[in-house]
Amino acid sequence: MCLAIVAIDALPDWPLVIVANRDEFHAREASAAAPWHDASEVVAGRDLQAGGTWLGLTKQGRIALLTNYREPGLKNPQAPSRGRLVENYLRGDMTAADYAQAIGERTREHNGFNLLLADEAGVWYASNRSRDTGTRLPPGIVGLSNALLDTPWPKLVRSRAAVGRHLGAQQTPDVDTLISIFQDRVPPPDRELPDTGLGVERERRLACPFILDPQYGTRCTSVILRHARGHTLFYEQSYTPEGTPGGRSAWRIDRSAGIARIPTDQTLGALLP
């Protein structure tokens, strides 16, 4: 992922809401979110080039998402796949807290990353570019892009505010509204652009919540909604290289009932017992 907004305990019936965009080269092969054939309790997309995934969840209530840390000129092409960090958590049995605490000790050889980990006990943040790793996140709405948690890049600030307004206006989140927030293609003024060493023209192209570019751009928007009763809904909207909506999938994940595909247009109320 390259932009994620996470709302913790913002709504009584929906204690965890995650909305995220995955930005990647369009030529990089990946599979859409679905149960894995070799790990049926996992629902996630798959990076078919380097392995692993950028975001996924399990029947046991584990959730993980990863963003790359932007540091031009420092990428090691021989470094281990960061997507394996998400995969290993989803396949494993460590708690989110223990996995987040262990990240700093095990990932010095990885290129820079941010990792959000959740289980039934809460949500934790970890990064191999931060001294403050393995941190449990308090209630509220936070954002993550390609810098440390809540670094105020324009697209993060704008998306976080829009998600906050939406959740503050009603008791049940609307999936279409959340996806539309992350389709925002309005660039910020140049004076607000971050300076990460890429140059103004490239900073401009990457500064919108939705990146439209024929080579590298937003590939999908994901929405994860965890209900207070324990059920989790997972939506994924894919896009073509031209930025038009492609397919949409939706899954209902429940510890006891298992994993089931659901109609993408079904109301949230109809999906809960």
Query: Helical region count?
Result: 5
Number of strands: 14
Q: Low-confidence stretches at least 5 residues in length (pLDDT < 50)?
A: none
CATH class: Alpha Beta
Largest sheet, strands/sense/barrel: 7 strands, antiparallel
Domains (count): 1
Q: Could you give the distance between the termini?
A: 31 Å
User: SSE order, as H and E?
Assistant: EEEEEEHHEEEEHHHEEEE
pLDDT averaged residue by residue: 94
Mass-distribution shape? globular
> What oligomeric state do the depicted chains represent?
single chain
CATH superfamily membership: Penicillin V Acylase, Chain A
Textual characterization of the structure:
The chain has 273 residues and is an alpha+beta fold. The protein has a single domain, classed as Penicillin V Acylase, Chain A (4-Layer Sandwich). 18% of the residues lie in helices and 35% in strands. It contains 5 helices and 14 strands. The protein has helices at 83-91, 96-106, 154-168, 175-181, 200-206, and strands at residues 3-8, 16-25, 30-36, 39-47, 55-58, 63-68, 113-119, 122-127, 135-136, 140-144, 216-226, 232-239, 245-254, 258-261. Strands 10-1-2-11-12-13-14 form a 7-stranded antiparallel sheet. A 7-stranded antiparallel sheet has the order 3-4-5-6-7-8-9, with helices on one face. A hairpin with a 2-residue loop joins strand 3 (30-36) and strand 4. The longest helix has 15 residues, at 154-168. It is globular and about 50 Å long. The model has no long low-confidence stretch (mean pLDDT 94).
